[in-house]
Amino acid sequence: MMLVLLSILFLHTWSVLLIFILLSLLIATYLGLLIPLLKRLLPILYLGTFMILLHALVNPHNQHFISIFGVEGFNYGLITALRLLAIVTVTQIFMLSNPLRTIISALSWIHPDLGIVLGLVLSILPVMREQMEVTLNVQRARGLRIGKYPWQRMQAFLVVMIPIIIKSLIRAQIMAQLLHVRGYNSKREKRRIDWNYTDKLVIACGLCFLLILVGFGR
Amino acid sequence: MSSITIRNFSFTYDEAATPALNTINFSAPSGQIILISGKNGSGKSTLLACLSGIIPELTPGKLEGQILFGDNSDSKLPKDNPTFGVLLQDSDVYLLEEVYEELAFSLQNSGINGPDLDLRIENVTSTLGLSGFLQRKLRSLSGGERQKVAIGSALICDAPILLLDEPVEQLDPLSAYNIFHTLRELADQGKLILVCMHNPLIAAPWADRLVIIRDGELFKEDLMTLEVTPIQVNQTIESFVNHGASIEPQISINEYPVLEVQNLTYRYDEQSGIEDINLKINKQEILALIGPNGSGKSTLVKHFIGLLRPQAGKVFVSGVDTENIPTWELAKEVGILFQNPDDQIFKATVLEEIAWSLIARGLPKKEALDKARKIATDFELEPMVNKHPHDLSRSLRQLVALVSVLITNPKILILDEPTKMMDSELVKKVMDWLLEYRNQGGTILIITHDMTLVNKYTDRVAILERGRLTNNSV
């Protein structure tokens, strides 16, 4: 995956980036991951649109304009947004097609701590998401009514976010205690990987892909 | 190695005026289960934190005296093998996503891998009734199931000393019985087991000694003072296992149902959720909803406030179908207390936190604060109304959360394990208030694993098992 991610940096036009993303989506469809992948890509699409708009409006290199939108900024914003989308698409396909335990285990090959750090981070993200839902439900049950005006929504946001932040701090403290009492140390075994034929083939393909894009990315 | 001697030990938290532990002298030989009890905030968890090294390693403060391990000359822990298996009080917090990873973590830290690791995990999961859970995500488990995983993590390294803080707080009586049975076997094999519990009754038949902590000082007590025998514990288990058959049914004062579900079904997946539930709760009665961990109790009550909507069936509150009624509107009729008070606390003072439920309903702030002060006085929270809620103990935070529900004076109260963190004194105070509330026309649905509370305070019992109401509900 690292080789593919690296290769994205050598794609410099929006058309090549778009082809890359479409190919990735085809692979995701073949793996049966398209729907969950699209769900995860939705926030990036919003962010990308915002980036394009921002660059089209205020990029200092804008010299040619269509109405108030600068062409140079639009082009730059589009390429940046597509590159971000390509990176997230590849990463998410990787995450969706490999169990977390396998990824952590593989990272332990580089360093045992790396796997644990990633494991802790990845385990806490769904917990935070769930906590947000729990707290929102609790406050709604106490009578919280989320109004339609921005200030009402901001008020509701605080009512939900403050318990989440406080609980996250408490959680971090307890996790530190758990690491201590469960004897976390450097005794963890560095994982050895026995590369088989398929592994070597995949790495070779990744290298070829990178070399091709270095040569033809422009 | 599996013995502990504590000599003239004191500990004061940084910035605290008085010591949390004061001149503790105590020795614990191997092969014993020792219960450490005391009121909320008395210093039980602090003592376990000192023994496990959390204090002073992670929590600073002033330490005096000695803690000696083994032959009374060794004040340092050996680095090679895990000396302690530790269960922290808040077992809802975990490190990794899957049950297998969580259990394997301690073993991998001890350098155990491969078939030996798998064998140990298999043994512990079958002992704790967690077989089949290994690939499950911890966040998908119920509180009780998560607590069992945390206990498994403490047991798995076969450490000679076990330090367990409230090990059965979230467990149903049968699971709690099984845990203490296992602990007794481990103690008989030579392990030293220290168990902190604010309500030690259920553990008494298995314990060798009882010590009480009061305001940081330790007193030895006779186990007989708990006035509980194995027969009494067995009766509690029996009343739970036999689906409430031994609980005397009371006749409802009023036959008008204020909460009703008809053929209610809500499935998360094939294994969890509720199915085809029919239940009526009459006005002015206290109904206990009991059942094993993960049987769907919380799922059922979330329907009464509109947090979950039926996949099939109907839910009625005060005779009205809730299908199109939003949660905020149902909240005017139904007050619900969730298990964890920290899910809701967000205000800077206890008073503001209690008053917020009224402010959310549109009451002017001053009026809401006045009412909050009055109800805080009723529950003897007056001295702490200006404190930050997170400066209070867990049980008092739970009380604050409860009071913030009661202040809205709902017609129907749903309480999810309201007393699990409270000591007996606080439980009595809360339950007396609830009885008075019932006598004045209120209706209460209470989810609990505390069979003593069920026997003493409730009118009827409904039992959920694997998502279905059993026929023996009375």
Molecular structure report:
The complex is a heterodimer of chains A (about 220) and B (about 475). Chain A is mainly alpha-helical and about 220 residues long. In chain A, about 80% of the residues lie in helices and about 0% in strands. Chain A folds into 2 domains: about 1-105 and about 200-215, no CATH class; about 110-180, no CATH class. In chain A, strand 1 and strand 2 form a beta hairpin. In chain A, helix 1 packs parallel to helix 8 and helix 2 runs parallel beside helix 4. Chain B is of the alpha/beta class and about 475 residues long. Chain B folds into 2 domains: about 5-235, Rossmann fold, CATH 3.40.50.300; about 245-470, P-loop containing nucleotide triphosphate hydrolases (Rossmann fold). In chain B, helix 4 (about 115-130) crosses helix 5, helix 10 (about 350-360) crosses helix 11 and helix 10 (about 350-360) packs parallel to helix 12. Chain B is globular. The model of chain B is unreliable at about 245-255 (pLDDT under 50). The chains are: A mainly alpha (about 220), B alpha/beta (about 475).
Into which percent range does the helicity of residues of chain A fall?
over 70%
Helix- and strand-based class of chain B? alpha/beta
What CATH calls the topology of the largest domain in chain B is: Rossmann fold
What is the residue-averaged pLDDT of chain A?
85
If helices are DSSP runs of H or I spanning 4 or more residues, what is the number of helices of chain A?
A: 8
User: What's the structural domain tally of chain B?
Assistant: 2
Q: Give the total of domains of chain A.
A: 2
* Cα separation of the termini of chain B: 51 Å
Query: Which two chains share the most extensive interface?
Result: A-B, 46 and 52 residues
The Cα radius of gyration of chain B reads: 23 Å
Q: Characterize the biggest β-sheet of chain A.
A: 2 strands, antiparallel
What's the CATH class of the largest domain in chain B, please? Alpha Beta
* Rg of chain A, Å, rounded: 22 Å
What is the succession of H and E elements of chain A?
HHHEEHHHHH
CATH homology group of the largest domain in chain B: P-loop containing nucleotide triphosphate hydrolases
Q: Count every beta strand of chain A, where a strand is a DSSP E run of 2 or more residues.
A: 2
Taking the sheet with the most strands of chain B, its summary is: 6 strands, mixed
Strand order of the largest sheet of chain B: 5-6-7-3-8-9
